[in-house]
Write a structure and sequence with these properties.
The complex is a heterodimer of chains A (223) and B (389). Chain A is mainly α and 223 residues long. Chain A has helices at residues 2-8, 14-36, 47-77, 82-106, 120-145, 148-173, 179-207. The longest helix of chain A has 31 residues, at 47-77. Classes of the chains: A mainly alpha (223), B mainly alpha (389).
């Protein structure tokens, strides 16, 4: 008990700890995505892996609540670094949503989607998934380094990928896929589009002021 | 995140050392203030204030004085230090000081109750914040309702109440009063400070100089404690934040010890209890988690009167220490009754919850409660005590 008491009075930066929680969330969703990626089109993910993805998603949700609690405690006791606190609140929401969409990808078969055959549209979706994976792999490092240049590059790729997703959805509506295949493709396209959009939001925090995070506009990019 | 975390402040260790230096200087000023106050009042001559502050003083009046003085200065530490100064001067009997100290305990709760009103714009948030604030009020009122009658009964049948008796015995053991003369270990240092202030008042006549010295003492106590609070507050906030984030579920005893430590460091229970109010309002801490922290704050704040007693030397030194111990024992006994047993704990918590439920529906109830509990009730009690002689 005495050690606990001493530990309390050691001090430390609790907001830094909240920032570390965000990075942990991003590391977990990256891990979730890597588990899901090989099974996206044939829905062959094992029950164990699926259960693990769900467990990881619960961890992400817990971390989100922990960050929120830390931020509220900080602002209640010591209202300094307010923009950083508000930013953390918005970024953890995005990170939590990324986890949700990865979980949703594992549910496509249950939602009526069948395995997706090879073809041009599937190739397009694979490329889009690769872009989302690239964003996910790099986002933590970019935020840690506050790498504006790389963030801008990936923001452009991410936004272009979003537009490609919309075009893919139109193409799917005219495709010859079966109902189950189209269902899979539409859901996957939609989930990865949203996943990429949340990663773009997170990346936009590197280059945009707080009030413009989520609304990345190249024309308004600060020098 | 790196750039966003850049904190353009002093190195934390340097900041800590600098803050501690400031606190030591301020503590010195505070203790010199206590000496000035007691010397000034002593200088007025024995018997000057007997009509008001003898042992026969109406205890209800004493209680009301304690409540009102504390609600005015928003600090029980200031009130209890002034009481110590008065006792040290020989003008206020320990028996008369006991209800005043109890009143100070009640009066200090007004600050966090007022702080909770800031949350009134959002019903649920206000309900939580108001309950967290008023559990402190209910504990203090319950402690007084239980212990003041006991004290008065003891006084009627044994000549001394249990608090006065126990604190007297402890004080005798601590400072050897009744046999040897207590010599304060830091007396010389304070004497030097008092001498400087007294020399500045040489141009005034006897009684006027004494009044001026007492007033200067009171101002020094008020200002020094206020500045200590300001210096220590920011230093303690990150620690409280750490506690809330990591150790809140560690149990009541840890929470109480944190309340003691934070309050002893910032020298203000109002600060400790007031910082819990927004946390409770935001739902970060629950009422049951706030309660032991609040009680710890009650104990922590008793350190101030004990510190003030350190500055006192001479025949009244023991009595001054005794007042400090009355404050401590009163709170410990209150905790033994209204926290230690689950049944006792439930009463203030339930009362706070019920009041908050009503107050959340009608803000007028909250305002009426604050005015009535801290000003109306004392006024009624005063009128009753006067009417009953």
């Amino acid at each position: 008990m005495w050690m606990e008491l001493i530990d309390i009075f050691r001090g430390g930066d609790e907001l830094q700890a909240a920032g570390d929680d965000l990075f942990e969330m991003l590391a977990i969703v990256r891990n979730m995505a890597s588990k899901v990626r090989p099974h996206v089109f044939d829905h062959s993910i094992s029950m164990d892996d699926r259960a693990r993805v769900y467990e990881l998603d619960i961890q992400v949700n817990k971390l989100q609540r922990r960050v929120r609690k830390r931020v509220v405690a900080h602002l209640s006791l010591n209202p300094t670094r307010v923009p950083y606190c508000l930013l953390l609140m918005t970024l953890v929401k995005d990170a939590e949503r990324v986890g949700d969409y990865i979980k949703n990808v594992t549910e496509v078969a249950e939602l009526g989607g069948g395995p997706v055959p090879e073809g041009e549209l599937r190739e397009e979706l694979e490329q889009l998934i690769d872009i989302a994976s690239e964003l996910l792999t790099e986002v933590e490092g970019i935020i840690r380094a506050q790498d504006r240049e790389r963030a801008t590059e990936l923001l452009q790729r991410g936004r272009a990928a979003g537009k490609r997703c919309d075009r893919l959805l139109v193409s799917l509506s005219h495709s010859t896929y079966s109902a189950g295949e189209v269902t899979s493709m539409v859901l996957l396209t939609r989930f990865y589009k949203r996943l990429g959009a949340h990663l773009v939001n997170i990346l936009s925090s590197v280059v945009m002021p707080l009030h413009k995070v989520d609304f990345y506009d190249e024309a308004e990019l600060e020098p | 995140m790196k750039t966003m975390n850049a904190n353009q402040q002093l190195d934390p260790r340097l900041q800590l050392v600098w803050s501690l230096i400031k606190v030591i200087v301020l503590l010195y000023v505070f203790l010199v203030g206590v000496q000035c106050l007691s010397s000034g009042i002593k200088g007025l001559g024995k018997g000057t204030m007997d009509a008001y502050m003898s042992a026969d003083m109406n205890p209800i009046v004493g209680l009301i004085v304690g409540i009102l003085a504390t609600t005015l200065v928003q600090s029980s530490s200031v009130t209890t230090s002034l009481i110590v100064g008065l006792v040290a001067s020989g003008q206020l009997a320990v028996a008369a000081a006991v209800p005043m100290v109890m009143g100070a305990n009640i009066g200090t709760t007004v600050t966090n109750t007022i702080a909770s009103l800031a949350h009134s714009a959002r019903g649920e948030e206000f309900r939580r914040a108001f309950a967290a604030a008023t559990c402190h009020d209910f504990f203090n009122y319950l402690a007084v309702i239980t212990l003041l009658p006991l004290e008065l009964l003891g006084r009627a049948f044994m000549g001394q109440g249990p608090l006065e008796m126990a604190s007297g015995a402890l004080a005798r053991n601590l400072v050897g009063i009744g046999g040897t003369t207590y010599k304060s270990p830091v007396k010389a240092l304070f004497k030097m400070g008092v001498k400087v202030i007294k020399s500045g008042l040489d141009w005034l006549d006897g009684p006027v100089a004494s009044i001026a010295l007492a007033v200067i003492g009171g101002v020094l106590i008020f200002v020094a404690l206020g500045l200590i609070v300001r210096v220590m507050r920011s230093l303690m906030m990150t620690r409280v934040e750490r506690f809330v984030n990591r150790f809140l579920g560690s149990g009541g005893l840890i929470a109480m010890l944190v309340g003691v430590a934070v309050t002893a460091a910032v020298q203000s229970s109002s600060i400790t209890t007031s910082i819990m109010v927004p946390l409770a309002g935001a739902g970060v801490v629950t009422l049951r988690q706030v309660y032991p922290i609040t009680l710890g704050a009650n104990i922590g704040t008793t350190l101030t009167a004990l510190l003030a007693a350190m500055a006192v030397s001479g025949a009244q030194a023991g009595a001054a220490v005794q007042v400090g111990l009355v404050h401590l024992l009163f709170n410990l006994l209150g905790i033994a009754i209204w926290y230690a047993p689950e049944a006792g704990r439930r009463v203030p918590l339930m009362a706070a919850e019920r009041l908050a439920n009503v107050a959340a529906k009608s803000k007028k109830v909250a305002v009426t409660y604050v005015v009535g509990m801290f000003y109306g009730l004392p006024a009624v009690l005063f009128l009753l005590s006067q009417a009953l002689g």
